[in-house]
C-alpha cells in the first residue's frame, strides 16, 4: 500500500490535475504493447462499503496494474491502509477534485483509467472487456459498461444480491455503441487525450458533482468516441449512506444543467428536459408521500434554484451555503442522463 497526500483542495481551488511528464510523445512510446489499466475509486464517509468493494476487486482473476483510492481523510479508508498493492491518496474533498487527483496519480504509467464508484461491483471479466474495446478501437476515448441492476432506483442492493445478479446474467458478447455520456459509476477513460488536451473534472461542481459524468464525457468526446459496452457488466449497489441530502441535490438538479449549458457541455434541449423531468418527479413523489426519497427537500432545492436563475445568481457552488440537514436519504451523485 502506498499512502500519499494530495494536499487539501477547496471547492474553488484548482480545476484540474497538476502537470505530469506524460505528454503525447510519452504516450506514443507506449504503442505496440499491452495497455496498462488502473482502477480509480473516489470515496468519502463510507469506509465499510469501500473496504468491501476493494476486497471484492482484489479477489478477481482480472486485475488492473494499479488500484488507486482517493479519500478526504485517512479514516475513510479504515481497514485498507496495510493492504499491499493499493495506493491511497488523502487530502482532497469533493468527487471532481478527488477524481482529478486520481488522474494525476495515474497519468505517468497508465493507459486506461477506469473510474468506479465505491459501490459498483463489476463482473469478473469487466476489466478485460474494457481493455479489449480500447485496444481494438483506438478512436474510443471514454466508455461505460452495462449496468445490470441499479440499486439507486429501488432502495439499494447489498453485495450478495449483486453477486446473484451477476451470476444469473452470465456472459454475453461485446457490443459497442455510441452514447452521449458515460455513467459515472463506471467510466473507462483513455488517458492520452485527457493529458494532451488538459481535460479534467470541473471542480466548480462541488461535493458529489451532480452531472460531472456528463460534463467530463462531453469534454473528452471532442477528441474521439464515447461508447457504451454491452457485455462489460456490473451492478451498482446504490448505497444511500454518505450521499447528498435532498435540498442540495434539488438545487443541483436545476443549477448544474444550467451551468453546463453556459459551458457548452450539455445541449439546451437536453438540459431543459432533464430539469423538467426532475421537477415533475419531485412534485409527484412529494404528493404521493415517497418514503424512500426526500422529495420535499429536493423540490425546495428545485424552486430555490429556479428563483436564483431568474435573478442571475444560480451557481452549482451555492449548495455549499446550505446547512447540512439530518440525513433522510442520500441519492447517487452521478447517474447517467438516460437513467435520471
UniProtKB/TrEMBL annotation:
<feature type="domain" description="Glycosyltransferase 2-like">
    <location>
        <begin position="88"/>
        <end position="145"/>
    </location>
</feature>
<dbReference type="Pfam" id="PF00535">
    <property type="entry name" value="Glycos_transf_2"/>
</dbReference>
<dbReference type="InterPro" id="IPR029044">
    <property type="entry name" value="Nucleotide-diphossugar_trans"/>
</dbReference>
<dbReference type="InterPro" id="IPR001173">
    <property type="entry name" value="Glyco_trans_2-like"/>
</dbReference>
<dbReference type="InterPro" id="IPR050834">
    <property type="entry name" value="Glycosyltransf_2"/>
</dbReference>
<feature type="region of interest" description="Disordered">
    <location>
        <begin position="1"/>
        <end position="25"/>
    </location>
</feature>
<keyword id="KW-0808">Transferase</keyword>
<protein>
    <submittedName>
        <fullName>GT2 family glycosyltransferase</fullName>
    </submittedName>
</protein>
<dbReference type="GO" id="GO:0016740">
    <property type="term" value="F:transferase activity"/>
</dbReference>
